[in-house]
Amino acid sequence: MWVGGEFLFDPENPLRFGDNVQFEETVERVKSLNHNETIFVDYNRRYVNEAGLSQVEKRRICYLYGLYSEEERASPTDTIRPDEYKWITLSKVTNFRMSALTFNSHLLHYDESYCKEVEGYPKVVVQAPLLFEIALQFWLNRAGKGKDVKRIKYKVSRPVFVDQQVKVCFKEMDGRKWKLWLEDSGGETLSMLLTERPSAGPDKTCRAA
């Protein structure tokens, strides 16, 4: 399960179409819990073009030995009121298109029989990158136009399933940071993102990563 991570960008050295890019991936940490029934793996991924380091991605994957349990509930979301929100419902077709686009062939994202009989999920699981793309696009269209972003942090609290109604929200926090999150119909937080603009001075975040 994709449970969290972070993207760091160098606004002065963005990746462009036609760039020759060197990709480096390393395993930073492996942590086992509950007698190896839950294993967290942290990956560090670097994208380097001719001008140097352009992007860094930190990704945390959780491997579970047991089946999914409905009792694993997220904490209720805080009392922050969103600046704007919208309701969406993702279909199996939309989820499958994301799987095809990202070459993700895991049955978890399109085979309902596998999800129920093997993994214990009630329905097909929506890809986390699809949720983040929708949240970021909503923020970009409504509030983020013309704004550079140097950092995006995200966390997945619990899975989202196809045909599940989800509320996409965002709120400006301090002029340089925005909080984006998704809720279910009961108000529980499903996933969360934080975007951060570059400061007025030189940005060294990506270069130092």
From TrEMBL:
Coiled-coil region: none
One annotated Gene Ontology cellular component of this protein: mitochondrion
InterPro entries per the UniProt record, alphabetical: HotDog_dom_sf (IPR029069), Mitochondrial_HTD2 (IPR052741)
Domain of life: Eukaryota
Membrane-crossing residue ranges in chain numbering: none
Matching SUPFAM superfamilies: Thioesterase/thiol ester dehydrase-isomerase
Molecular function via GO: (3R)-hydroxyacyl-[acyl-carrier-protein] dehydratase activity
PANTHER family in alphabetical order: HYDROXYACYL-THIOESTER DEHYDRATASE TYPE 2, MITOCHONDRIAL (PTHR28152), N-TERMINAL OF MAOC-LIKE DEHYDRATASE DOMAIN-CONTAINING PROTEIN (PTHR28152:SF2)
The protein's name in its UniProt record: DEKNAAC105460
